[in-house]
Amino acid sequence: MNLHEYQAKELLKKYNVPVQEGIAVDNVMAAEEAYRQIKGQTNNNFAVVKAQIHAGGRGKGTIKGKDQRGVAVGKNLEDIDNIAKNILGGTLVTVQTGPAGRKVNKILIAQDVYYPGPNPVKEFYLSILLDRSKGQNVIMYSTEGGMDIEQVAHDTPDKIFKEWVHPSGGLLGFQARKIAFNLGLSGEAFKNCVKFVTNLYNAYIGLDCAMLEINPLFKTSDEKIIAVDCKMNIDDNALMRHNEVASLRDLEEEDPTEVEAGRYNLNFVKLDGNVGCMVNGAGLAMATMDMIKLSGGEPANFLDVGGTANAQTVEAGFRIIMKDPNVKAILINIFGGIVRCDRVAAGVIEAYNKLGDINIPIIVRLQGTNAEEAKKLIDESGLKVQSAIELSEAAELVRKALAKSE
Amino acid sequence: MSVLVNKDSKVIVQGFTGTEGTFHASQMIEYGTNVVGGVTPGKGGSTHLDRPVFNTVADAVKATGANVSIIFVPPAFAADAIMESADAGIALIVCITEGIPTQDMVKVKNYLKSYSSRLIGPNCPGVITAGEAKVGIMPGFIFKPGKIGIVSKSGTLTYEAADQAVKAGLGISTAIGIGGDPIIGTTTKEAVELLMNDEETEGIIMIGEIGGGMEAEAARWIKENGKKPVVGFIAGQTAPPGRRMGHAGAIVGGAEDTAAAKMRIMEECGIHVVASPADIGKTMAAALKK
């Protein structure tokens, strides 16, 4: 589960990780009040307005129809007011959102971290994630902060450092020091960085993060180390033990159809193709999508109905797939092991009758327990449903259906 | 010879008296698996499915001499169940549970380093040696005895592959469902190695998914050590990058873990790579004739 920047920063503060201070608001009046507060706290007229959406590239992204970036600095109340008006309710398009963009419902009014002081400011990069091959968490960091880290890794791989954390000892003191030294820090900033990294790792473990990225990790002119931006992704499997975090889920950031599918315990991902599919098992679902492509179509979705394919789940699956007007055919591929194919077939027939006339071809491939009985049921139902037992037959039926629809 | 489990395996079920445990234990017994008992903390001393129930895995091992455990414990307690089994000296631990938090598995993987136990899974269909023992949730009737070994990250896709191999007249020796999570006990390469050294296995079907580098690692091992034909399929050629496709591990992170990259590496290593899942069985049959 992804969190907004403002949510992630609040969670980090609970672990004593210093962050760029800010107040999240959803209307212009509240933005003005937040600005007054931030100004009072920091004794600085400058403040930053940051659009809160689940996508990166906000600073370079623009609000549709307006000359407005997703992150902007204001130097007085009027500025803040204008920026807030532009961003709130607008649609932010960034490299990560695609051309459709995302609606902005919240903005973060944040302190200006470039305030003057005795020393120059510096930006770094730091993230914590799982190294699957080693089975360990790894802290990845770089002196090149505030930039696209994939670009840095590509152009100057020697500027990316990695520190693996042994599961039995956790992050050790020497490792935190090594990170601070490699970032070229000394004095107060060094000490602050060691504390920052130690507490950040505790947050990563304590919150069951799947990924935690601080970019930029920032050294202020008075030697503080703070998180200016934060991307936090929580392991979905661990949400059961973090109720307070689970409640931060923002459904507005998710595809409404995917949210609806979740309610029926269906695992659905919307894609751009023309053949819908409904499958039991994630691997077989992906394989079915691949087969659709090889048959001349493009998969319109990923849909795993899980271990229990019955009339209710099949009906919900049908409804969800048919919401997409681009769908020209639907392929149901169920390998019945524990679930009996004849039951699934009865479910398909029941759902079909309930939904009335479906005017796109439906191909049902049922294999496994009672596959023959299932095929008979479908064939004798009188419905415009084509049945198959072998996967290759199903692929052929998809090919024919697509050829006809053109 | 067979791999991991056979008719002599003494199997206990952790989470024996729960709904899942009860259902699948019955199916395993029906298949002929030697299920010697089960574990449900607090229910020790009772009997379930005509077999003794124990409070701890250690008690179960002491009383029955069990050497294999299959786990149906809910995700919040599954990591603990795996480590309990290892501590009790179980040689093969098969964890079916889906949805175990990743950091729990980081702990488990590290814990297991001090033990000789082998873990299969989690989030997997289990292991079956056709005609001898089923330690898993797969539909047993599909797996007719024969000469093909299967290694797979995915459940129903394993059944699909087994069905095709059986219909091609080849049959199955042992099928190993290794699971689709980011951290699993037995890797693709380790499972392939077991089958490569198994006398009953004449060909290997290796089914992977997008995400991670396990298939590439296995392919490179096969290039150096392979002595039997291997047919490979990677699910997720059409999966968009950055989206998690069902399995926690099935997400394209970098350029190296896409289906295309994996298929290319596998081909370079001499594996018979199929683009369509419908071609697995016939490609295996053809490869064996060569």
Number of helices of chain B: 9
Overall residue-averaged pLDDT value of chain B: 95
Query: What's the structural domain tally of chain A?
Result: 3
The termini of chain A sit apart by 40 Å
Overall morphology of chain B: globular
Helix content of chain B: 25-40%
Following the backbone from N to C, one meets helices and strands of chain B in this order, namely EHEEEHEHEHEEEEHEHEHEHEH
Question: Percentage of helical residues of chain A?
Answer: 25-40%
**Which structural class matches the secondary elements of chain A?**
alpha+beta
Report the CATH architecture of the largest domain in chain B. 3-Layer(aba) Sandwich
The CATH superfamily name of the largest domain in chain B is Succinyl-CoA synthetase domains
Q: Which topology of the largest domain in chain A does CATH recognise?
A: Rossmann fold
CATH topology of the largest domain in chain B: Rossmann fold
CATH superfamily of the largest domain in chain A: Succinyl-CoA synthetase domains
Oligomer: heterodimer
**Average pLDDT taken over every residue of chain A:** 93
Proportion of beta-strand residues of chain B: 15-25%
Domain ATP-grasp fold succinyl-CoA synthetase-type (chain A): 2-218
Family (chain A): Belongs to the succinate/malate CoA ligase beta subunit family.
Subunit structure (chain A): Heterotetramer of two alpha and two beta subunits.
GO molecular function (chain A): ATP binding; magnesium ion binding; succinate-CoA ligase (ADP-forming) activity; succinate-CoA ligase (GDP-forming) activity
